[in-house]
Protein 1
Amino acid sequence: MSKVGVIGSSGLLGKAITRVMTRNCPESVVEFTRSRNSSYSSKTTNLVLLDILKFEQSLQSLKGLETIFFCNGYGGIDYASEEADLCFNSEKRLIEKLLDLDKRIIYFSSNKVCLLQDPTNIVLPPSLHPYLQHKRSIETLLRRYPNQTIIRLGKVIHDDFPRYQSWIKDCTNSRSIYIPENAYYEPVDINFVSEKTFKIYKQDLSGPFIMQSSDAISYFTSARIVIQTFFDTSMYNHLINPVDLEIPLPAITLDSVYNLGDFLALKGSTSARVIEMVAKKMRSTKHAIFPSLERK
């Protein structure tokens, strides 16, 4: 069986991809992560430490692979910083090297990339612009080669989603929270992403694809859904207050030919339904996540 690699396997997306691959293709997965302790830690996987800034040190391990999933994230990095530039440039050089070695790449991009080409000249938050430019640059590179797969993702959510946990903790402690009403996102469940990605891999599909909810939702509205679903009551609604960002974050709707382009849409449920499902999962394990909460 051909070997596959997961770059960024320590992140939640990388762990989900590693999990579904090892479940379906035992003994075939190689994890690439910066930290041994944060890997998926499956007994059926091999582990290679990879620093994206020094990828040449791990290149030999990559050469024996047929397909490589790029789940590399940039958590905690200011996208407008010099550090981000170094990471972006190094990742692009690594992808160029892998393409020269005739590797198949499954690359996770962002559905917000389409905003860079919006004919209405939408202004983007300065911190987001460099990240999307980098994603578009990689997409452009991959499109020059056959059989490469681009998957644009909406906001990937799960029952450990930090933003939702923060909202819940604040309401638990009766703290008011202020959530943007003019910033939108398109949630997609992490299990939906991993299962659909495995099918794309197994069927050797190129796409390109976009995975997101069938509609968009504001962060303010989603906060109300999370809190009401988690606590099964509306008694905390008064703590959730709407605010407007100076630079709004537009919605990506798949009924727009412009937003969709030549991407094949793999739509999940409505945004409200996706969020409710995740909040219910959080509620079912709330005593593990929030041990201070009393059992009802």
Protein 2
Amino acid sequence: MRNSLIILLALSFTSCKRNNQLNLNLITTNYNNKKLEIERVEYLINRIDSFSNGLVWNNKGYGLIEKDFTDSLFGFSFYGKRFDNQNEVIYYKGNGFIISPKQRVIQ
């Protein structure tokens, strides 16, 4: 009885494992399908640069990337802002802009 139970458990575990094998093509297809569903990505970033002279830059900011199928160069639009200098960067339909609200300048 005990041996039968052990064999039954072993068979059920190994049969389950065979049915759940990873299929690279299926994983790739699912990834590509999910990737197409993404319309926009927003993120906060914290980039720390350390230099050999001991200087450390700690830059923080915000970014937004949106799909834009009408853009022939990249296929997306972009907005970014660093929190330390208040400058903003926009890329929209092949045109890039740097906005400096303090100086009231758009380049």
Protein 3
Amino acid sequence: MATYAHIGLRETYFTPVIGDDGNTLTDFIFPASKQNEPLLEPLNFSSNFERASEVFANLHNVKLYMTGRPYQLTPAILAAVSVGLKSFIVMHYDRDSDTYVPIDMTPCLSQES
């Protein structure tokens, strides 16, 4: 069974996010300490792609929790493809069940045509 890095997209100031492994998320692509940096503005896709690529660079299997702005997900998905992750699962929050629902993006990682 693969070991996953549990990473939040954007650190929030709301209720802590609990991963499906039972642990509180502490790693974020966009941590609170970096959110005010001009190069990490939410709609700066190039810098968001670079930041996500840095976070994913030495990882193989990632569960990415949607904890913030949805438009920052696109550069994160592109970064997952670019760095060659082996497995990539996006965890979307479901308000009705108060849980994160996994969407397996692994089949989208292949750059083969």
Protein 4
Amino acid sequence: MKRLIILLFVLLLPLPAWAVPAVDQVVAKINFDNIIGAQDFSFGTLPAAGSVVCATFWAWANDDFDISTVTDNQANTYVVTKTAVVAKSRAVIACAPNVNSSGTFTITLTPTNAGGVYSVVSAASFTEIQTSSPIDQTASAIDAGPQANDATVTSGATTVDDEVVIAVAIIASVGDAALTITTPAGYTAIAVEQDNNAHLGGQASYLIVAATGAQTATWSHDDVGSTADDGWGAVIVTLKGIVAAGATRRYGTPIFFP
């Protein structure tokens, strides 16, 4: 009887929960065409306070696009990861950890360019991410046209079992209104623009992984042409889940009786 009571007591004890990163809110694709100056967009539903908010976008300008600042109306600070310029464009991921979040959450993208900018913007928030220095790995790659190879980018080895991987690609092929860009295998799309004629082609996705290792995102697409406005660029960022590196999941505690 004593052994049975002890066994029941242990079985009824709650095991510590293993918190897994999860997507919280998403801003779907917004096209900004030939806009001069800062570009604002907002979440339809407020991101969770303490989450990580990442703006994911790609943009073109005739004088070679570059981003000056990414800010919001919540006083959060963004870390910007971007490709080198290719086809007068860049792919960009900008993440703010442990965000303040109230009222309407509006993000502002301010380019360095004086002229008109074409961009495709989106954003996502993620919960169960470390609140201090959550960015683990970053990488970028570019390939100027002409080329027919897939767009691809690979990060360094992640250091935490549970991480969010965010990847963005700009696919530029002049006059192509149907780029047939695919979502990288295993990823979930945040935004995609297939029309590089009226807008600017590209794709943003995320993946939640449960083991450490290098992370790769690959997009197939139409062949890219050979002008200065053709080519692809890709950028990847990984975000550490709240469990510290080296921790192991606890599935249960073995119990032995004499």
